[in-house]
Amino acid sequence: MNFTVGFKPLLGDAHSMDNLEKQLICPICLEMFSKPVVILPCQHNLCRKCANDVFQASNPLWQSRGSTTVSSGGRFRCPSCRHEVVLDRHGVYGLQRNLLVENIIDIYKQESSRPLHSKAEQHLMCEEHEEEKINIYCLSCEVPTCSLCKVFGAHKDCEVAPLPTIYKRQKSELSDGIAMLVAGNDRVQAVITQMEEVCQTIEDNSRRQKQLLNQRFESLCAVLEERKGELLQALAREQEEKLQRVRGLIRQYGDHLEASSKLVESAIQSMEEPQMALYLQQAKELINKVGAMSKVELAGRPEPGYESMDQFTVSVEHVAEMLRTIDFQPGASGEEEDEEASLDRDEGSAGPEEERLEGPEGESGLR
């Protein structure tokens, strides 16, 4: 059933009042704002009761203060723009009242004796019966119509009901649906907030574990550096000992060579003496010296392979293979890791004293 809206001469003012009322409708209860009206930081308005209902739905775990229903702090989102509203300890009672909107509501109520929808209904006219108002609802076709359409028109065989009855029923259904939708949106927002908190927790835990991982590998590197220094010191000591021994032998052989060369030179000069008597005076002593010099036993030379340092070869293949097996421990908790770290620090602080006690034995063992 088609119908049109018939505009009366004075309907221009009614249309302005209609637009005004639309601006005074609360987005929560869909009714005109009830005092007091609070203004949110995003400049949207709510009934204080509706604001408190939205706040309590968004903060189900907040407890009431004393015997009142004022929540101490918290946050919720504006139902119009989803802007996050942060409340202080006064809750919604800490929001500023919008006195301008309250004054406009007072003026509107004084100027209007009937609800806006009642005025509009007076001008809903049937298209087929231009002088008939739309006053009944066809349940079969699910459209509003007039009485003549029921008696003579297209809806004469349909089941109808009074228009106010269907209006109240459907308005109640729509109100309930809006309430459920708002509640569902609040639950979805709560889930989103929880998941955002989960994301933040994941980032915090990941950052913490990265720090612990870096600390563990830095500790391993420190152990490797310390052990490398100890092995290099042992290698340097062995090198110095061998060099001192070989250089001592070189000096000993050099002294013997120098003395032998001087004796050879003296013997050659003596052999060049033309006078036999003079030669014989020195020959006996030289012969004895040459004989003694030839019988001198020098310190033994270094044994074969003495110069080799192969005994200081370090095999790291198995250690490298073991390091490659380092992996995360699924069952390890952060507290256990903290305890292990504290134990490592305690052991590290006791290390120098043990090294001082075991140092001489370690050095002798290396030698």
UniProtKB/TrEMBL annotation:
InterPro entries, per the entry: COS_domain, TRIM/RBCC, Trim54_Bbox2_Zfn, TRIM54_RING-HC, Znf-RING_euk, Znf_B-box, Znf_RING, Znf_RING/FYVE/PHD
Coiled coil residues, start to end: 221-252
Regions of compositional bias (Basic and acidic residues) in chain numbering: 342-367
GO biological process, one term: cell differentiation
Principal cellular location given in the protein's record: cytoplasm
Domain named COS: residues: 271-329
Pfam families xrefs: zf-B_box, zf-RING_UBOX
Region (Disordered): 325-367
Location in or out of the cell: Cytoplasm, Cytoskeleton; Cytoplasm, Myofibril, Sarcomere, Z line
Keyword tags: Coiled coil, Cytoplasm, Cytoskeleton, Developmental protein, Differentiation, Metal-binding, Microtubule, Zinc, Zinc-finger
Residues in RING-type domain copies: 26-82
Entry annotated with the keyword Cytoplasm: yes
Sequence ranges assigned to domain B box-type in this UniProt record: 121-163
Any one GO MF annotation of this record: microtubule binding
One cellular-component annotation, GO: microtubule associated complex
Chain's role: May bind and stabilize microtubules during myotubes formation.
Protein name: Tripartite motif-containing protein 54
Protein's organism: Otolemur garnettii (Small-eared galago)
